Amino acid sequence: MKILLVEDDDAFIKVLTRALKGHHYSVDSVKDGEAGWTYGSTFDYDLMVMDIVLPKLDGISLCKRFRAEGYATPILLLTAQDSNTAKVQGLDAGADDYVVKPFDQAELLARIRALLRRSSSNPMPLLTWGDLLLNPSTCEVQYKGQNLALTGKEYELLELMLRDSQHVFCVDELLEHLWSSEDFPSEATVRSHIRRVRQKLVASGAPHDFIATLHGRGYYLKPPESSESSVSDGWVRAGTSAGMGMGKAGFSEASATQPAVSDLSNAAALDPSLAAQNQAQYLAFLNQTWKTTQPNSLEQVTELLQAIATLQTNALTPDQQTHAQQVAHKLAGTLSLFGLQKAVHLARQLEHWLGSQDALPANQVELMHPLVQELQHELQITTDIQPEQIPQGVSPQLLLIGADQEFEQALRAIATHRGVAVNPIPFQEVESASSPADVILLHFPGANAGHAATPHLSLAQSLQRLAQQYPEVPLLVVSDRLGLCDRLEVVRQGGRFLLDLATPPEQLLSIAIQALQDSRHPTKVMVVDDDLNWLGTLPTLLKPWGLKVTTLADPQEFWTVLQMVDPDVLVLDVNMPEINGFELCQILRSDPRWQKVPVLFLSELTDASSQQKAFTVGGDDYLCKPLRGGELATRILHRLQRIQAYAG
Amino acid sequence: MSIKRVLIIDDEETIQTVVQFGIKMAVGWDVLTAGSGVQGIAVAQTEQPDVILLDVMMPDMDGISTFKALQAQTATENIPVIFLTAKAQTAEKRQFSSLGVSGVITKPFNSLQLPEQISRILHWDGER
């Protein structure tokens, strides 16, 4: 259960947050009414607790704003004013309950529980499902009378599912409810929690699909055996057999010795001599393995040479070409184990060429033949594997350019903790930078920097080089040159962020990680339009922008497809038969869950009243047809960036 | 002590061998190996590993088909799967995450660091 606390008194925030967290609520706290609005309208909360006297926007007005915008989240008002007028005002503004300071903590918690109960589909003080019993006031969970030792998140997960036991929870929903906004959990996090709760349930005798998976939809509580027939909601039930999957052994390990695992895997990290010893042994093993691998790899190179010889005289059959490509791919994979970077690079290039077009023309021979020969030579001269060749780190790599030592150390300390590897290079090497990078942070000293640090390349030049070398890698620039011209240069060269030199390393890292995650998770766009030709071209047009497109021509299917796709953004045509785009948007906004997904309207109508209407029904942007794919993509991405900036 | 069991499915024997050695040496986990998707599925069913490392590009049955087959069976649907793939294929990473894969580990990797990487992806290191 996730709670938003809007309160300006630090001491009070601290006490209340601790009490709430102690009862397994996840808490976001903000200190003024405007921030309260930003958070409450951006994230899903199960309850909002707000003070009446707040900076910027008072609690009563904030409450009114939420209600006026259609948010039904329960609101509990806190105040020092013990007068009936104040209470009446608060309740009239749309608050659900009212507590006067100073109050008894136990009473406040009880009221919170009561509010959550009222809003849940399961208004019983004790939550049960089959043989499972969860007591929210004591935070105890039992299965068939046996206590379950759950971590905080595991408890929250079960509570959430029990409170809405008929609901199928998609991963995003679970993320929204169980993690506070400053965490960066992934979908895998949710799955691993589900898995652990399942293991613990199984260990207590519950069927292994007590929490069942509905493929493509999410997780739900499977109706207990006895009442199964009474629930007929038309879902296709996934997996019914019990007893398969996780056994008891898995459970006892999972709960009791979890920290030991992490100690174990970090043992080498904590003890440098152990790490060195491990590395030495590993290197010895690699060398030994290389002895048998080398002849095999050379044989694979011979296969490539043969393929090229064939290509010189005849065309390769599709099978031969695919086979050659696979050989190159395998070579790259194997050689990378040994850190033979040059050879890996050659193999990858060959793989790329062999896969670049269907029937390879004979003139490609001239390009590929030298590469294969070079590869052969590389493999022949590699007699042993050097320690510095071993690939280091599988963590995301942050390429840090031009930072001073102090900054680098500060950043590295935090980055290590968050699983990001920092690879620093001096600014002078920006032209020749070639090390792998998942995100780049360019530290660019500006006008105020000392003479020695004055770079030999301009900001624009260095950005240009980086954009060429790392076309897909998100780039952040840190500088004291923050004027419009500099910003223009940065964005023109594809830079994502321009930040002040004074930005603390923690914040920089958070932004870098966010950029990294954005570049790894596709944005899901759902487009509803009855123009089939336009729809047909969209996936291709939007794909280069990292957008995953689902198109829908029939508005009647809207709700079903919406739930399935769970889009990050919606594009709606205005004029459609039966249900128009404005109506679709109203349908969407009628569900609290879909309050914050951005909606872009697309229409031939250019008149002001249509545009006005678009915003009135809850749209975020209005675009006029005809529109190029690129334009649409940019508008979509901008909208999402604005939302993220708002949220984060 | 919790000994995890890892199944690696990769048609390259060298990769199997090195990964097995690296993981065993780093943390002492058990590593099972399979040289094809079909063999991997059979091992996963009977051995119920804690995680599967799956090579994406394999002849006959590739990583994606293998993953789908694993997901389609009750006995294996809950086993987390991590794809092993080349660094260059960022576009594919997007596709993987939409498939429901637990994570992706890019080559080149140092097998000694695999356990740490796996633990991080699957949150075996607790609630930090």
How would you describe what is shown here?
The complex is a heterodimer of chains A (648) and B (128). By secondary structure, chain A is an alpha/beta fold. Chain A has five domains: 2-118, Rossmann fold, CATH 3.40.50; 127-266, Arc Repressor Mutant, subunit A, CATH 1.10.10; 275-382; 397-519, Response regulator (Rossmann fold), CATH 3.40.50; 522-647, Response regulator (Rossmann fold), CATH 3.40.50. Chain A is 49% helix and 15% strand. Chain A has 23 helices and 21 strands. In chain A, the strands form five sheets. Chain A has a five-stranded parallel beta sheet, sandwiched between helices. In chain A, strands 13-12-14-15-16 form a five-stranded parallel beta sheet, with helices on both faces. In chain A, strands 18-17-19-20-21 form a five-stranded parallel beta sheet, with helices on both faces. In chain A, α3 links the parallel β3 (47-51) and β4 (75-79). In chain A, α2 (33-42) packs parallel to α3, α12 (318-337) packs antiparallel against α13 and α15 (405-417) crosses α18. With 128 residues, chain B is an alpha/beta fold. Chain B is 42% helix and 20% strand. In chain B, β4, α4 and β5 (103-107) form a beta-alpha-beta unit. The model of chain B has no long low-confidence stretch (mean pLDDT 84). Classes of the chains: A alpha/beta (648), B alpha/beta (128). The interface between A and B is large, with 75 and 59 residues.
